[in-house]
């Protein structure tokens, strides 16, 4: 491998989604990864274990996913960009530290190569049924950012973007890929290091006596410090004030948790990302994401060939959900068809945003393989009736 | 970022010269704006903390480079009272958090300070694996024989026959012998004291801070409100009296002989002091042997 000193593997390569995820992390400046082997994500950490010693990174295989998911928080407070990688059952075990990362505003990245569930489910086969778990899986109120790539190229780009968003909003960010995208191999073009835009950590410029670790800037995100800088910060998972000190009452809870939620909600327009395809004249809007969107685009072609006025919206950022965009679309389409590799999760979000202005249909799939385009086409026909 | 001198050792020396007549020597290390603390009258955690703070001040370690990490529970609150970079993490997970912190900045001195339930029950897996890997951490376990924060439940160190809210007819599960567990898992320095032994404990903390590798220090501490009251052990003073009368100092005692019975004799002292390569040393050595010049170790993030 001919990576430069920064670890950016510039050039055109034939990579799997999982390999591209590893290269994205390296290009983003990630230099600490803690993981625990789990199919179908393991080849990400296997490549990390090969690549990291050559570029000044530390990989540690921890004893379980609880350990992996909190080790990255420790590393982040030491100043590193840090990531963990898992799949279904491991993702369930990591929920407590997604909550801790949200509460302590620790920038970090969680990659979930989704497989079929629940429980051990389908270790080697794909699913998209962790969508709501990504949003709501840890207890309590918080907002989250989650990205959904549909190709190895996009897995590379979105892994970088995940680090950038984590730093910008001081929040855990999830890359919600799946077994299909993880193991498909395609051309991945990696630009030179100086063409990759990176969001540096937002360190404070204040001296220790003036600094309060949880006092936010105007965009509701507090600047950070790292251990060893002499600020002697206190960081707790308890409800805390701007000094970081525990305050166990309703007022502090309201102020803190509202801000944690608002720092994402108020920046939704800046975070959301989606692609529209043939939506200019469409009366039926197909909504999809990740690997399913690739099958769905075929279904759009087939439906158009039948003269059905179908377009597609592909969500690249799945959380926060693009509420405004779906509401606007609901004003001018007759119906939505939501194609997802689960038995109905995103469809509830679409239905909520459509608010009765457009009918909503679900093209479900329990996982294990992708939809056939015909399955989606049938729902489109139903929606067109 | 320029180095800050607030709370550096020299600043502490100046402040103690000014106020030595009225100030507790460890006060500069405390977040005095968080006092009063939450611990009950007679609790032993504060005494252990005092010993730790004295040892840390005496050690002359740059306090900017010391981080303290706690889990959940009464002892889990220790991190919140020390004016250091301090982390109050999730239940059972201070060791893996501290592992990430240490590996991402090897220049730091990282101390884990937590209770028996946190470190040994819910955190038991992390404890044995960090000891096996010989992660460079000083792990302090305040053992009060029960889950105190939640109201006095039975735990992994509760002695046989002792009463707890969830063992109302007496505990019948054999407890862990913590020094034995630590040694068999790979810890390189292991000691036990009670909070009666304040001088020995402070000396052990100082020695532990100077060691590399997985250092484990068990501190027996009274919990008069829950464990003591339920087992009719009298007040905290009575428990410290018990520590005084029933403790036997046996440095180098084989750890399989230091298990604790209910109100039985307590073997204290330094049991193990056997350095071996830390995780980072072993990793660096292996990588250099295999990769030579191509190996690039992690630099402290700047």
Shape summary of chain B: globular
> In total, how many domains does the architecture of chain A comprise?
2
Give the name of the CATH superfamily of the largest domain in chain A.
Thiamin diphosphate (ThDP)-binding fold, Pyr/PP domains
Biggest pleated-sheet summary of chain A: 8 strands, mixed
Q: What is the averaged pLDDT score of chain A?
A: 97
CATH architecture of chain B: 3-Layer(aba) Sandwich
Number of domains as seen in the coordinates of chain B: 1
Oligomeric state of shown chains: heterodimer
Content-based structural category of chain A: alpha/beta
Q: What is Rg of chain B?
A: 19 Å
Q: Which protein chains make the most extensive interface, counting residues with beta carbons within 8 Å of the other chain's beta carbons?
A: A-B, 50 and 56 residues
Number of strands of chain B: 8
N-to-C order of helices and strands of chain B: HHEEHEHHEHEHEHHEEH
Radius of gyration of chain A: 21 Å
Terminal CA distance of chain B: 9 Å
Helix and strand run of chain A = EHEHEHEHHEEHEHEHEEHHEEHEEHEHEH
């Amino acid at each position: 491998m001919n990576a430069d000193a920064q670890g950016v593997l510039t050039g055109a390569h034939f990579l799997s989604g999982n390999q591209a995820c590893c290269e994205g992390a390296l290009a983003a400046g990630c230099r600490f990864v803690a993981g625990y082997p789990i199919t179908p994500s393991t080849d990400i950490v296997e490549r990390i274990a090969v690549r990291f010693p050559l570029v000044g990174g530390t990989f540690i295989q921890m004893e379980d996913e609880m350990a992996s998911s909190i080790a990255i928080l420790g590393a982040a407070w030491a100043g590193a960009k840090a990531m963990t990688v898992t799949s279904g059952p491991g993702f369930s075990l990591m929920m407590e530290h997604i909550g801790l990362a949200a509460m302590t505003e620790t920038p970090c990245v969680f990659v979930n190569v989704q497989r079929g569930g629940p429980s051990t489910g389908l270790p080697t086969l794909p699913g998209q049924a962790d969508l709501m778990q990504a949003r709501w899986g840890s207890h309590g109120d918080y907002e989250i950012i989650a990205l959904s790539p549909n190709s190895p190229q996009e897995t590379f780009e979105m892994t970088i973007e995940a680090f950038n968003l984590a730093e910008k909003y001081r929040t855990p960010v999830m890359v919600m890929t799946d077994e299909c995208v993880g193991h498909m191999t395609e051309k991945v073009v990696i630009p030179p290091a100086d063409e990759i835009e990176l969001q540096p950590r937002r360190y404070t410029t204040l001296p220790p006596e003036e600094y309060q670790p949880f006092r936010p800037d105007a965009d509701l995100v507090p600047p950070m410090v790292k251990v060893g800088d002499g600020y002697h910060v206190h960081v707790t998972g308890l409800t805390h004030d701007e000094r970081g000190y525990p305050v166990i009452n309703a007022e502090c809870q309201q102020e803190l948790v509202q801000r944690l939620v608002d720092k994402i909600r108020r920046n939704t327009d800046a975070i959301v990302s989606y692609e529209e395809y043939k939506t200019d004249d469409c009366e039926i809007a197909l909504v999809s994401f990740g690997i399913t969107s690739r099958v769905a685009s075929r279904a759009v072609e087939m439906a158009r060939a039948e003269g059905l006025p179908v377009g597609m919206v592909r969500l690249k950022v799945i959380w926060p959900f693009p509420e405004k965009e779906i509401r606007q679309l609901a004003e001018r389409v007759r119906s939505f068809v939501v194609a997802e590799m689960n038995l109905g999760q995103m469809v509830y979000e679409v239905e909520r945003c459509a608010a009765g202005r457009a009918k909503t249909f679900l093209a479900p799939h329990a996982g294990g393989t992708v939809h056939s385009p015909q399955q989606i086409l049938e729902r489109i026909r139903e929606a067109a009736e | 970022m320029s180095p800050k001198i607030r709370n550096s050792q020299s600043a502490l020396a100046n402040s103690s010269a000014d106020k030595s007549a009225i100030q507790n020597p460890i006060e500069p290390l405390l977040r005095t704006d968080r006092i009063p603390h939450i611990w009950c009258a007679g609790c032993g955690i504060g005494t252990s903390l005092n010993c730790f703070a004295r040892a840390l001040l005496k050690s002359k370690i740059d306090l900017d480079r010391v981080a303290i990490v706690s889990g959940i529970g009464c002892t889990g609150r220790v991190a919140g009272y020390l004016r250091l970079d301090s982390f109050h993490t999730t239940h059972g997970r201070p060791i893996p958090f501290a592992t990430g912190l240490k590996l991402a900045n090897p220049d730091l001195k990282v101390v884990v300070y937590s209770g028996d339930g946190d470190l040994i029950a819910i955190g038991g897996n992390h404890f044995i694996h960090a000891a096996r890997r010989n992660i460079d951490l000083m792990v302090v376990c305040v053992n009060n024989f029960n889950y105190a924060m939640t109201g006095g439940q039975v735990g992994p160190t509760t002695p046989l026959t002792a009463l707890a809210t969830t063992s109302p007819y007496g505990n019948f599960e054999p407890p862990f012998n913590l020094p034995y567990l630590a040694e068999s898992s790979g810890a390189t320095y292991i000691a036990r004291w009670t909070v009666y032994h304040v001088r020995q404990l402070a000396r052990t903390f100082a020695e532990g801070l100077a060691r590399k590798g997985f250092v484990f220090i068990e501190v027996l501490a009274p919990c008069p409100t829950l464990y003591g009251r339920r087992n009719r052990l009298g007040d905290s003073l009575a428990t410290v009296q018990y520590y005084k009368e029933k403790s036997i100092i046996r440095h180098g005692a084989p750890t399989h002989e230091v298990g604790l019975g209910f109100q039985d004799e307590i073997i204290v002292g330094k049991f193990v002091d056997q350095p071996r390569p830390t995780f980072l040393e072993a990793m660096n050595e292996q990588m250099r042997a295999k990769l030579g010049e191509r190996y690039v170790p992690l630099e402290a993030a700047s």
